[in-house]
Design goal:
Elements (H helix, E strand, L loop, with lengths): L15 E2 L2 E2 L12 E6 L4 H14 L6 E6 L5 H7 L7 E5 L3 H6 L14 H8 L2 H6 L1 E2 L2 E2 L2 E6 L1 E6 L15 H5 L14 E4 L5 H10 L20 H13 L18 E2 L3 H9 L3 E7 L13 E4 L3 E4 L2 E4 L3 E9 L6 H11 L2 H11 L2 E2 L2 H5 L1 H4 L2 H11 L2 E2 L10 H12 L7 H15 L4
Parallel strand pairs: 3-4, 10-11, 10-12, 16-18
Antiparallel strand pairs: 1-2, 5-16, 6-7, 8-16, 8-17, 9-12, 9-13, 14-15
Helix pairs in contact: 8-16
Length: about 425
């Protein structure tokens, strides 16, 4: 990021705002160096094409530009270890904005003398993603996508005609008489999601009305998952979302029952191969695991039955956005590049090539998105979702959620009310601010 062949001698006036260049032009002298942009491994082909187009469209940019592979989910921890060797333009999920902004790792984005970055972000993007790019009233990111998860199923096991009946009910799926896995004496599993991942564990608690960090996700001491409603879901989960209890004759072997917990990718692969009837996973699966598959369909999340009442599972949602490394010495070019990559036209390309739902409002209304059956389901689920909180304290949530989900899955809580309440109380306590 900081290898220079020449040193800039001219700085555009009015460009620097809280450590982030908000200017519209690149360096006007013979300054050189390198701007690095990160993207996921699966996005490399498209991102490299876009970068080449940026170079052609901006001949005044003197820096070279390099694309590197970096998973968005791990970006915050990588940058925190050594900001000066990290990329200039960094792709992250929105729940890392607060963490990175508070730590001084990313620069605030404002309008400058020759650019309208902040104004364009606010005017052009879905209000939810604008909020997710904002921390303490300041904009820190260029939104690119909106993400959530849905239910996928294989029509080889569950016919499409059952989409609004059996597939709309977790209880109905778990009670279904499952066929054998093709070429095997083993029966297919009915339904699964990764209960050990806090990105999915929340679904049942939100379904019964519980909140995480308060109604708007900003109260660091507010989590009510240990109330009476939360206990109802815990009892449901401990009964239905655990490994099947082995027989005494085979006590060492824990076998799958009608429910399966595993990584989202493994579950999607199991659905594709007719080993699993339905699973919950992210929108990205359509361009990865399920690309070109003819047996895969999708719908919004199913319901669970609590006290005789069906309650739809409620998804988390997030957005991905590009932020600018605060230590970058090429913030003007980095900002221009981030704005170019996340433009309306390029978001449409991400939608077409990668299956990412765009954050840009005009792109959302484009027929290629608005009329697409898959994106229609994603939009409906987004409207029914709860955004992952942006406050830095969200970092406290993931490990305790993973541990509690694992305890449900491995059966260690065993459905005992005292143990369940204790587990919930400990979980809620671990999220609170003790400073």
């Amino acid at each position: 990021m900081k290898t220079f062949t020449k040193i800039a001698t001219v700085v555009l006036s009015g460009c620097m705002v809280f450590g982030l260049a908000a200017c519209g032009g690149g360096n006007t002298d013979e300054a050189a160096g390198e701007v690095v942009i990160w993207g996921g491994a699966e996005d490399q082909t498209l991102l490299k094409q876009i970068v080449e187009e940026f170079k052609t469209a901006n001949p005044d940019v003197k820096e070279s530009i390099r694309v590197e592979i970096q998973d968005a989910w791990d970006a915050q921890s990588v940058v925190a270890k050594d900001p000066e060797t990290a990329a200039d333009v960094i792709l992250i999920p929105h729940d890392q904005v607060g963490i990175m902004a508070k730590a001084g790792l990313i620069g605030e984005i404002r309008d400058g003398t020759a650019a309208t970055f902040e104004t364009d972000i606010k005017n052009n993007n879905d209000p939810a993603t604008v909020q997710q790019a904002t921390y303490n009233g300041a904009i820190y990111g260029f939104p690119l996508t909106m993400d959530t998860y849905i239910e996928y199923y294989t029509t080889d096991i569950f016919p499409e005609s059952l989409e609004n009946t059996l597939l709309g009910s977790v209880d109905a799926m778990l009670a279904a008489d499952m066929p054998h896995i093709p070429g095997s004496k083993e029966k297919a599993t009915a339904f699964g999601f990764c209960i050990q991942d806090g990105f999915y564990l929340n679904m049942g608690f939100f379904a019964v009305g519980c909140t995480l960090y308060g109604e708007d996700g900003t109260d660091v001491n507010a989590c009510n998952w240990n109330n009476a409603d939360g206990m109802k879901f815990m009892q449901y989960a401990a009964t239905n979302f655990r490994k099947e209890v082995p027989s005494k004759e085979d006590a060492k072997k824990m076998v799958d029952g009608p429910f399966k917990s595993d990584s989202a990718k493994n579950l999607a692969t199991a659905v594709l191969n007719d080993r699993l009837g339905a699973c919950i996973s992210g929108a990205w699966e359509m361009q990865d695991t399920f690309k070109g598959a003819t047996n895969i369909k999708y719908r919004t999340l199913p319901s669970i039955t609590i006290d005789g009442e069906e309650k739809p599972l409620i998804a988390f949602s997030n957005s991905k956005l590009y932020v600018i490394n605060k230590t970058s010495e090429h913030k003007g070019t980095a900002s221009r590049l981030a704005a170019f990559v996340t433009s309306e036209q390029n978001q449409l390309r991400y939608a077409a090539d990668r299956g990412y739902y765009p954050s840009n409002k005009n792109a959302q209304q484009n027929a290629a998105v608005k009329d697409d059956p898959f994106f229609k389901v994603i939009r409906r689920q987004l409207d029914l979702s709860v955004p992952v909180p942006i406050i830095p304290e969200i970092s406290r949530y993931w490990n305790p959620a993973k541990a509690m989900g694992e305890s449900i899955w491995n059966g260690s809580l065993a459905g005992d009310p005292v143990s369940l309440q204790s587990a919930l109380d400990d979980f809620v306590s671990s999220l609170k601010d003790t400073t």
